[in-house]
Amino acid sequence: MALKKSQLYSSLWQSCDELRGGMDASQYKDYVLTLLFMKYVSDKAHRPGEAVIVVPDGGGFAGMVRLKGDARIGEKINAIIGRLARVNDLKGVIDQADFNDESKLGTGKERQDRLSKLVGIFERLDFGANGADGDDLLGDAYEYLMRHFATESGKSKGQFYTPAEVSRVMAKVIGIGSHTRPDQTIYDPTCGSGSLLLKAASEAPRTEAGACGVQVYGQEMDNATFALARMNMFLHDCGGAVLRRGNTLAAPAFGTKRTGLKTFDFAVANPHFSTKAWSSGINPGNDPYQRFVHGIPPTKNGDYAFLLHLLASLNSTGKGAIILPHGVLFRGKKEAEIRRNLVLHGFIKGIIGLPTNLFFGTGIPACILVIDKEHACERQGIFMIDASRGYIKDGPKNRLRAQDIHRIVDVFNNQIEVPRYSRMVPVAEIASGANDYNLNIPRYVRIDETEDVHDLGAHLSGGIPNRDIDALDAYWRIFPALRQALFHGAAGRPGYSSLRGPAADVKAAIVNHEEFRRFQQNVAETFDSWCAVHRPRLGDLSADADPKLLVAALAEDLLTRFAAVPLLSRYDVYQRLMDYWDETMHDDAYLVVNAGWVAAATPRRLEGEGASRFKETPDLVVDRCKYKMDLIPPELIARRYFAAEQAEVEALELRWQAIADQVADRVADSSGDDRGGAGLLEAAVNGHGRVSASGIRERLLALADDPDADEERCALDEALALMESEARAAKALKAAKTTLDRRILDRYATLQEADIVSLVVDGKWFACLREGILEEAERLTLRLAVRVRELGERYARPLRELARDVEAYQRKVAGHLKRMGLVL
Known about the structure:
Helix content is 50%, strand content 10%. By secondary structure, it is α/β, with parallel strands linked by helices. A hairpin with a 2-residue loop joins strand 11 and strand 12 (397-399). The termini are far apart. The model is unreliable at 673-678 (pLDDT under 50).
């Protein structure tokens, strides 16, 4: 069975757990990624035509497996990796981690056991089974590890990784896409682990042979990070990438002092922010590569040095994107001069302001500067986006969601002006005396929130200001009659209105209104029309399908259809699909493509021959046999084929729970309390501190001849009767559930492919997505209801009415005091 994302991720992080303690994340990543590389290339070497590199005899992962329990396992693993490195010219790349290092892995038996467990974890993985086109499982896994390593490594050591979401934005806004040709080039002068470079390159279609769809070049100064980048290229089937070690600014690897820099079609970069020693080994005033013709950056801040290097590395039609701190947009002196020259030459196509805390080396906000040489001469403005508010919290960092990425790319590539989000800013405005080539985004894109101003007249005399109701015009354009149903004019108060009913009834009034019901129906019909179009394609998933292209097509069509639905954000709908894809549909689709519908839906035994190598929670236990249902959950079978039996089980469960609650209440009421009082059931408490049926029976026998124990006997009898009733209910529930579980398991064996497709596509995928999208429509209702109720409650009682209440309370208090003999 093909490997699932959840299995791979859990195994990889389990391998990290084996290494914690002896070293920090910046070190143990080298061990984990080296083993991941060894396992991947070894598995691929066993499949005809899929070998990534040459795996010599004794130089593959199988040799490591044979070393489990060997006292010299660390030394021998080093030898295996060394053999593979020599054959493939990877010395200094895959042999960076020392598996015999006592300071990191322990000594003697400790190191032997740790490495044996580590090899055993990777032994469970089988990368050869995932043969679907577009299967990015390993790439996802590598991103998963790099993201976690960067998170754990802290500020100083997390800069080797650019978040994949930001990388995708950069690739798309510089024009890498379906039309990109294999002969075109992409370059990253500070490539780190290669994550940005690879993610950008992945936007280009792969060649027929499955190779990278664009020629990849990169340079990295740090040796260990360079090794990660080389391995990363192989793991992503970009083994032909040309990577070089060295300091990009001091010694560019591509080009010569005589001929100048090699130039590329595309370039991306995420350099270290504000590098102080950027000019070491450089004479900027006499640079043989002609990079500083637009100005020399400050000696102790290298942000513009990297930008100018990237600019010089683009050919005459080249396009690039670089991540830099916001300071480059407004800092003065030398940087102001460079900025002015770049604007006047038209090189800056756009600026995208990003949320804070996205990057692992820093928490400060950053921006993407988009460079375009091809259309520089005719550029009359710079397109600016403030995307700082579109993100989700993800652990200690923020992260762009799928909808944030799509919105940025849509708006930027189509140059769409959106109030408080994006704007085309004329160069004349940027050059004006008021701005003087300052590119700080808030100068041009205002995002100030509208202040919620209280109306003093309404507080004094009552009524809801019509201007507050008018501010909800986006709703009233769609629900004009709803406004009339909720409000009426305040008597004698022009410009003010009142709620027709209590504020507490607002939500019900909205939900039950005919206009809102029609809106919900429109949402449902739009979704259903999308389902009808794509149902055949989903039902025909086969071995030659590319699920990655499939979900892209599904998502784009969903965006298009919901663009016509008012009020509802099409990007929120899109996010629902992408979240569900990541959580469920990705594994389902690749499972079907790799195994076929029938095999994918067949229950797996979690014990005995052919059992999974992973620790998994069973979905069904029948006759003590544990089963995992990868594609169709048992509850889906129950809902489709055994609705009556499922309803009976649920009814029995409710009955048992009700009796169990009665038993708990009776025991709590009749046992000893915290103040030491003797409860009627206290004597029936067993050795485990609980009242039990057997304890009650023993106590009843002991009280058989006690004439003064009638009250205790009565309490014991009632408690025993409840417990026996609970036991009978539990027994009935267990019997019904056991019978249902057997029938569910038997039903799997009779499913035909058409049944499976219907269950998965209609009963699982479409049903879950439909529920989520209708929830988005309901969120609109909630937002409207909350605001209307807030306005109603805010002005419900004017000041004069409150003053009357205060006077009444004062009179009441004075009366009470007078009766008590106190006179104020």
